[in-house]
Specification:
Number of strands: 11
Order of helices and strands: HEHHHEEHEHEEEHEEHHEHEHHHHH
Oligomer: single chain
Shape: elongated
Strand content: 5-15%
Number of domains: 2
């Protein structure tokens, strides 16, 4: 029988991870039980990832990372909390809401720099082993490994919940050939109980079952990941959200007392964005305004697309003239169609009979 790796190896890398600034650290061993959970297999098999094709292309590796890294022995999972003061109330007319995680710095960069330092130290300590880190960028089922590493449990809204940080967390992983010994009895029990607040509040009923979220109905998917035109039937779902959606996490009881870190101090003006500003911002101004933030990953075109949808749902009457001017100069056929739709919605709401939206 193979001897267990020494505790001091695990203790060392955990201590270093805390030293570089992470709030929670866990270690999971990779063995014959390493394949991903049945729920993830079901999620991909049912095509609930919508057109996020990279998830399907890397399905086999996500289900069992040893298919790509046969000598993978351990996964170190790290988490950082971020500040969030969400509300279910829509902003004033003329503004679009931004998901809490995008109020501050781009977590890919922040966590990436920390993981780079951690991995550099680990490589010096163990030069014969390999280490590879990812922050939302690799074929790794981060949430599955977070559960196995004792970082938290997967809530009914599909996000990892930590007892202290709630679900307002960013995750990162380090894969390694170094055999690391996980702590005994480290699993965190599912504490959602009979609560279904996240499922009940979702305006699109995207949570099909506990922990199973259909991207086809998720506002975050449509406003962030979807690259093309937003179907007309979907647009009213989006309401006032310009970027992402927080409703399912906003009502989660575990987020009431969540403790947050100072690495992602929110910038007040990013909590909501002027729809007029988003509509008329040129590409250079977009890069200046949102560089280093998650919104920058959206791209200029999608920001304007989203702004047109939110204007149709939540714009004030003064934006009707902006839409007419926009149509007079814009040549992109997709943006023009979205603008025509928004103008029709505003006209019917402010000139004829009010047209209700979900919020």
């Amino acid at each position: 029988m193979e001897a267990l790796p020494p505790w001091d190896d695990t203790s060392w890398i955990v201590a270093q991870a805390y030293l570089v600034g992470f709030d929670v650290v866990g270690v999971a061993a990779v063995d014959e039980t390493a394949s991903a959970t049945e729920s993830m297999f079901y999620w991909l098999a049912q095509g609930l990832q919508a057109d996020m094709d990279w998830l399907q292309r890397t399905r086999a590796v996500r289900l069992d990372p040893r298919r790509r890294w046969p000598d993978l022995r351990a996964v170190v999972v790290v988490a950082s909390g971020y500040p969030a003061w969400p509300t279910l109330q829509a902003p004033p007319e003329g503004y679009g809401r931004v998901s809490c995680y995008a109020w501050g710095r781009d977590y890919h960069r922040v966590l990436g720099r920390r993981l780079e330092r951690l991995v550099a130290w680990a490589r010096r300590r163990w030069p014969d082993d390999w280490f590879r880190w990812y922050v939302d960028t690799g074929p790794v089922a981060e949430k599955v490994w977070a559960v196995r590493a004792g970082v938290g449990w997967i809530g009914k809204h599909g996000n990892v919940i930590h007892p202290r940080l709630g679900s307002w967390t960013f995750l990162g992983v380090v894969l390694t050939s170094r055999p690391l010994r996980p702590a005994p009895h480290q699993a965190v029990a599912d504490r959602c109980g009979t609560c279904t607040r996240c499922m009940d509040v979702c305006p699109t009923r995207a949570i099909l079952a506990p922990g199973v979220v259909s991207a086809h109905r998720c506002i975050s998917y449509w406003t962030i990941e979807h690259p093309g035109p937003i179907p007309e039937a979907v647009r009213p779902w989006i309401g006032s959200y310009l970027f992402g959606c927080d409703d399912c996490q906003t009502v989660c009881p575990w987020n009431r007392w969540a403790q947050t870190a100072g690495s992602f101090v929110p910038v007040v003006q990013r909590r909501r964005i002027s729809l007029r500003e988003a509509l008329w911002m040129d590409e250079a101004a977009f890069h200046r305004t949102f560089a280093g933030t998650p919104v920058h990953r959206l791209g200029w075109w999608r920001l304007r697309r989203n702004a047109l949808v939110v204007i149709g749902n939540h714009g004030d009457a003064s934006l009707m003239e902006d839409l007419r001017r926009f149509l007079a100069v814009e040549t992109d056929p997709v943006l023009r169609e979205h603008a025509e739709w928004a103008l029709d919605r505003l006209t019917r709401r402010h000139v004829s009979v009010a047209s209700p939206v979900h919020r």
